[in-house]
Amino acid sequence: MALVAVPGEKDQQISGARKPVSLAKSQLVLFQSRKKFAFLYGLATVTGLFCLPGVFGALSSPNPDLLNILRMTLPLPIATLLVTVGTYILNDLVDADLDKANGKKRPIPSELVSKRQAWIFVVLTFGTAVILTMITFRPISIIVVSLMLVIGISYSAPKIALMKRFLVKTSSIATFYILCSLLG
Q1: Structural domain includes residue 83
Q2: Range of the domain at 154
Q3: Helix 139-156 × helix 166-183 angle, to 10°
Q4: Is residue 13 part of a domain?
Q5: Which of 5, 49, 172, 182 has the greatest number of beta carbons closer than 10 A?
Q6: How much is the pLDDT for 63?
Q7: Is residue 157 part of a domain?
Q8: What is the DSSP string of 157-184?
Q9: Does residue 11 carry a pLDDT above 50?
Q10: Domain count of the chain?
């Protein structure tokens, strides 16, 4: 990557790479890049809320007021969305060099977002998902989200790399989706 002096701008980079964005904007760019998949998994949790004892369990709780029902159910689809998008971005981080070589236009290989910004995004999404799940005060929800995190991290982690094992890859994706429904 060559650096050239441009009048009025110090050390302007001239190459195919884009100029990196701020940390705040990088978080939005990363979320936008994978939101359609995250919403699909979030929808599975919403469906699970109505098919399984989610909302109905909240209604039969000792305190079935609206605020209690919302506290027990609303954070769950949001937690699913955050775990899913964090998992996709983690996978993009691990595959960044391969994606760059193959000309992918995603934020990390195109250098619109730095790897450091992407790591911050992954930690924030995973951490926020855990906090949102803990707000429900339901141990089973915390266990399910923990399992989703284990699958998501194991899918991309270089030492484990479930994504490189054909049958295990398919099984882990299916299990993750089922856990999204069970979270409801």
Answers
A1: yes
A2: 21-183
A3: 160
A4: no
A5: 49
A6: 64
A7: yes
A8: -TTT-GGGSHHHHHHHHHHHHHHHHHH-
A9: no
A10: 1
